[in-house]
Amino acid sequence: MAVELENVGLTVRGAVHIHPTSLRLERGTINVLLGATLSGKTTLMRLLAGLDQPSSGRVTYDGRDMTRVPVRKRNVAMVYQQFINYPALSVYENIASPLRVQGVAKAEIETKVARAASLLRLEPYLQRTPLELSGGQQQRTAIARALVKGADLVLLDEPLANLDYKLREELRAELPRIFGESGAVFVYATTEPSEALLLGGNTATLHEGRVTQYGRTVDVYRHPHDRITAEVFSDPPMNFVDLNLDGSHAHLPNGQNIPQIGTLQGLASGSYVVGFRPNHVAVTNRPGLVPIAGKTAVSEITGSESFIHVDVGGFRWIALEAGVYELNPGTDLTIYLDPARFFVFDGNGRLVRAPQSEGGR
Amino acid sequence: MKSRHIILGVYLVFLMLPIYWLINMSFKTTTEITTSMTLFPTMPTLQNYHEIFTNPAWFDGFVFSLTYVAINTVISILVALPAAYAFSRYRFMGDKHLFFWLLTNRMAPPAVFALPFFNLYSAVGLFDTPWAVALAHCIFNVPLAVWILEGFMSGVPREIDETAYLDGYSFPRFFVKIFVPLIASGIGVAAFFCFMFSWVELLLARTLTNNQAISSIMTRTVSASGVDWGLLSAAGVLTLIPGALVIWFVRNYIAKGFALGRV
To answer: Domain ends where: A197, A232, A267?
Structure first.
């Protein structure tokens, strides 16, 4: 099945929640909705499911117009960020619930529930009620319910956000496999760029109710069409700086000049915005890097890596370096940029140049 | 430690004394009550209770009252359930005002409504039936039930409703199978409050019937030989029992009920 949004927009009491959006999500694919909180991920999912009605445009499943079809008549499953189950029913009945409504035979319900329970390792808890389970088990119950239904469209709205770290990693690896077999259109909302990259598939980046870009996850990551997409798809946040090019040199706002090399090479004179990821800011020199003088603002040590916040002429950049760097705030620090890794945007935020992918395609 | 027990003991005696006295009197003869003050019945008798259970004038009063109380509780809950769901889940024009207006109904004294109800029910032939009292009590009980149920319903995440629709439930099926079990304690508490109000209410029950309700029978039992204290006490004890029974069922939720479900 292919789910398609055609110019779907949502305006509530004069406030635009979703700008007119067109998206085509194919069967058997993972589609990640990536954006910050309040960027419209959940709203877009609710429009896809039919829990909310769009104020303009059409939603089609396989070409059939579903815009006015009520939720219960569509074959859709959804898992919320909060653990939503029926508290009065046992885990078994929770998972069996959509099948019971469909009027599936008892024996078939038993085999399907047993299969889902074993996939999600819920077998020991089937006779308990959801509130007697841990958060992770509750969410697995909700996922199992979405799974047994065999829905055409599976929506997961930040399903792992409220789980502990280890369980997240485990489930994140399993989810695409579990739902992949069903051949459903699989939509996964997340705030974390790393989660989108781990899931692969396609990604739509959202910003303030607008889909800024949709494509293969890796393509969006490597070739963001504009500055906003690059910002959304970067964690830790991407560093930005305004540059003035004169044909041979780039002028930084702090008065420093760097030669027009890397992705800047051959660009016409004018003002540009350059973005680069924190892992491409070094504190030790290597050939091909350009030094910039700055001052340490904060350094955070996460273990094997250090985040170093550096003030450079009114800009604050973040450098991500392997190893432990203990730097006192206010100390002078020379950082090294790699012009070959610059994303270059024009004055309107459109991408002009992207770095060559490391290691090729 | 000791003083705490004493204070609690004094408080309990203070609370229980009238009830004890009522039970005490119900096992005495009227002569004993009026002639001497005794802590225990000197000649315990079941005559008072026997009189109530055998004399239709008394017994039918209990049946009549229980009938209209039951009818009223059922109507109030059935009407309040959809109303409370609407207030809890939907936004519509004037919803907050309407919700508050419901509660203001409880602020009017029953006497205000007695006259119009009396006239109306006489006109349509409802006078002196259990339905008259049951319907009249709805004006106080429906708003209360709506408020209590709304509080309990708003404690259920909206996402549960949506999950049920996603699972394919129709609204009626979802409401009965999924939603009602989730607010079962709320329904119990609301039913309790309706029961209690209707059971103890005197003015409407007396005005709208020809002295059939037990509460009104009790207040007019003055015979030629004066007040029959023993008989009245026995009736009083029997009147306490239904309330005590109902409160036992909802004892764990009663505090939440007094807070209109908003705890």
So the answer is: A232
